[in-house]
């Protein structure tokens, strides 16, 4: 009996020892929405979940630092990680991967095939490389012309292949970030696309693509599995199993109203959950019927001879809008004679990927051992996401009766920002907002009937449509958690500011979830505690 008692006592001593060394530490997306980055540590290894950008609109919201400072900080323990698990390609989840690799990260990047292709396309389109401090070089004559014109851009290079093509090159004397170089030289720099392409091809070698619902064996006691998150094509939740204990990361979860992705898959029962609550403090109070509201307002505006301007995020939101216009053309509710312009280069690069995938048969998309399907069956049956009258190009005259799609969705960046002074003052323009916008952004101010940030008063009509949202509301999050043991599961709220996180905690507790907390940047969570 003494031996049995001793064995039982030793067993219970051993259990905490196994799990005491397993922890998760948020390095972003805790008390703030963006900057997704989590370090999962076991007794002998370190693993990353995401390595994303902090967005400028959230500057100072966590720790008092600016987004610029937080984006440049890559801690040694992150660089030392054995692998990175990428939930999806949005830049607030993937945007610091180029910097991470530049600093020395050598591990594999696990993702779906769609996430890999979309992330690499975003990198090729000049995203992420501006954070890296380098000894840049550029054309002296181009820089002089830019200063003289007072609005020109100078192409910044860094690879050897570009050196031979520049006759009168100037160099930064020290390693410096692109933004600091702009301040020093008093010109606006633009990353060289050839340099971005060359470096992206190096990053691609570190990707390892896997299908949904397949176990990835990392070690004898550690596996990872991807589950469809329904957010954007290729988006995934991750379930990590360590010595029969399970940790679940939501990534970003879809709203359920997407014609591309449908609903997420409901994950299995786990012990510890890190769950997004980006806009989930309340219900969206929308359904598929809101597509009809969007359609009816669009048709009325066009019938009245207005130009319809749709500022939209370049990744997924632009493509959702294009597909809705195609469906309207297919059912005869939108004339194929109405020109549709998508004018943002990055959005058009993403659109080309979507279109290439949609042209496949679903069986063809699924047959590869390393790919997961991107879309619902209906998209593959259509064979296209594009309306017949679409033109993926810039144009000079926006005065005619057209549909114009530009990035960014909040009108603070890119082509949308440049259009604000000329489009918002026109009474013959109808602005359709299809994504969340910050109240302080140009789009947010216009929705409040206020002047733009530059002081421009708007005469254009403007309206917002939530059905295009990519994020789950409270009702959908409850559905996602439906397999969990409310009495025992530990839930940590991520991808949410403090106010929304506290609201989410109260809502979940009102539904019987006992162990709910807000994740804090830098504070480790132990598995089993």
From TrEMBL:
User: For this UniProt entry, which residues form the secretion signal?
Assistant: 1-20
Annotated ranges, domain Metallo-beta-lactamase? 34-306
- Keyword Hydrolase belongs to the record: yes
**Could you tell me which InterPro entries the record lists for this protein?**
Beta_Casp, MBL, Metallo-B-lactamas, RibonucZ/Hydroxyglut_hydro, RMMBL
Which Pfam families does the protein's record reference? Beta-Casp (PF10996), Lactamase_B (PF00753), RMMBL (PF07521)
Which keywords does this Swiss-Prot/TrEMBL entry list?
Exonuclease, Hydrolase, Nuclease, Signal
Q: Does the keyword Transit peptide apply?
A: no
Give the Gene Ontology MF terms in alphabetical order. exonuclease activity; RNA endonuclease activity
Spell out the coiled coil positions from the record: none
Q: Which SMART domains match?
A: Lactamase_B
Enumerate the Gene3D superfamilies for this protein: 3.40.50.10890, Ribonuclease Z/Hydroxyacylglutathione hydrolase-like (3.60.15.10)
**Which protein are we looking at?**
Ysh1-family RNA processing exonuclease
What is the species of this protein? Endomicrobium trichonymphae
Classification of source organism = Bacteria, Pseudomonadati, Elusimicrobiota, Endomicrobiia, Endomicrobiales
